[in-house]
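Postdoc handover notes: sequence design on the structure in folder B. Input tokens:
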């Protein structure tokens, strides 16, 4: 089994500035790429990939996607903190999505959200809808459905886009032996 996981985190700023966003990409639970919203650039991370030629290719290929996700996360965090009257202090919005590829070539995907450390929403691939993890997240669900990709786009990413990206990353990683 192989896995690809994106972990996105936005933290509300103390001032009226932009919320800092951090995106980490893992292949088989090994840190692979990092994106920091303050620099708006992705870069190779982890011992296996850092410093290797060719890493720039993945960076270029993923940077546009990550910048779009960054903007989406910032908008959602601003709306959520405003709607819930959380105008002071730090608040976080976490998004985790990814897929796994089994030896028999079958795939599975996941996409979930959390607000202030509490699980909020999970995408149900069988019925193509967002389910609330707890009833108190109705507001989060409404905000997400306003700003989120359409359900068919989420399904396409989880069933096709993510597994394709995972296979491309795995093929590239074969070129880089594990450095110990």
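Designed sequence:
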């Amino acid at each position: 089994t192989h896995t690809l996981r994106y972990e996105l985190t936005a933290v509300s700023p103390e001032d009226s500035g932009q919320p800092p966003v951090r995106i980490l990409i893992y292949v088989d639970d090994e840190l692979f790429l990092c994106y920091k919203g303050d620099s708006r650039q992705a870069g190779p991370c982890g011992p296996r990939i850092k410093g290797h030629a060719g890493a720039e290719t993945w960076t270029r290929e993923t940077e546009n996607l990550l910048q779009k996700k960054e903007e989406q996360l910032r908008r959602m965090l601003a709306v959520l903190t405003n709607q819930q009257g959380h105008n002071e202090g730090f608040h976080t919005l976490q998004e985790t999505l990814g897929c796994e590829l089994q030896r028999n070539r079958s795939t599975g995907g996941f996409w979930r959200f959390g607000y202030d450390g509490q699980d909020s929403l999970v995408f149900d691939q069988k019925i193509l809808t967002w389910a609330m993890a707890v009833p108190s997240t109705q507001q989060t669900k409404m905000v997400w459905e306003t700003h989120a990709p359409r359900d068919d786009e989420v399904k396409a990413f989880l069933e096709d886009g993510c597994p394709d990206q995972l296979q491309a990353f795995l093929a590239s990683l074969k070129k880089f032996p594990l450095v110990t």
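Context for whoever picks this up: Residues 2-173 form a domain with the Murine Class I Major Histocompatibility Complex, H2-DB; Chain A, domain 1 fold (CATH 3.30.500.10). Don't rerun without checking with the PI first.
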